[in-house]
Design a protein that fits this description.
Layout (H helix, E strand, L loop, with lengths): L1 H23 L5 E7 L6 E11 L2 E7 L6 E5 L3 E8 L7 E8 L2 E3 L6 E4 L15
Antiparallel strand pairs: 1-2, 2-5, 3-4, 3-6, 6-7, 6-8
């Protein structure tokens, strides 16, 4: 009889321990955030997560503006690359990245980069002969 009374308590304890373990594992860590392939009108933003994530996104806005554009990638990988397009030259942009509901935003201070400027002088012509 004593064994039957302890089964519900043991089962409840096991469920609570399992739930605590799952809750502790839901935090995804991000590292190696980078802006690469910087151009006049775009860039690539990449980052690495410690587990495969999908529903990845970048929110971007011109500095000083509240108008946000979202770029998405739904592939499930550890390394994430999202190409940002249709930007203005010589403009500073603020951005943050995320996966699902997890947001990485530099502790509330969005990351930033500046697109390249249009060259003020013409490129030299190649003369062959």
């Amino acid at each position: 009889m004593l064994l039957r009374k302890n089964i519900p308590i043991a089962a409840l304890a096991a469920v609570l321990i399992y739930w605590a373990f799952l809750w502790a594992q839901t935090e995804v860590d991000m590292a190696k955030l980078a802006v690469t392939n910087l151009r006049l009108s775009g860039a690539v933003i990449s980052w690495v997560t410690d587990e495969k994530t999908s529903s990845n996104w970048v929110e971007i806005r011109p500095a000083g503006s509240d108008s946000v554009v979202v770029f998405r990638d739904d592939k499930s990988y550890y390394v994430h690359y999202i190409e940002i397009t249709d930007l203005d030259p010589a403009t500073e942009y603020k951005y943050r990245v995320g996966s699902g509901d997890t947001v990485w935003d530099n502790n509330g201070q969005w990351y930033s980069f500046k697109t390249l400027e249009v060259a003020m002088t013409a490129l030299p012509r190649t003369i062959m002969g």
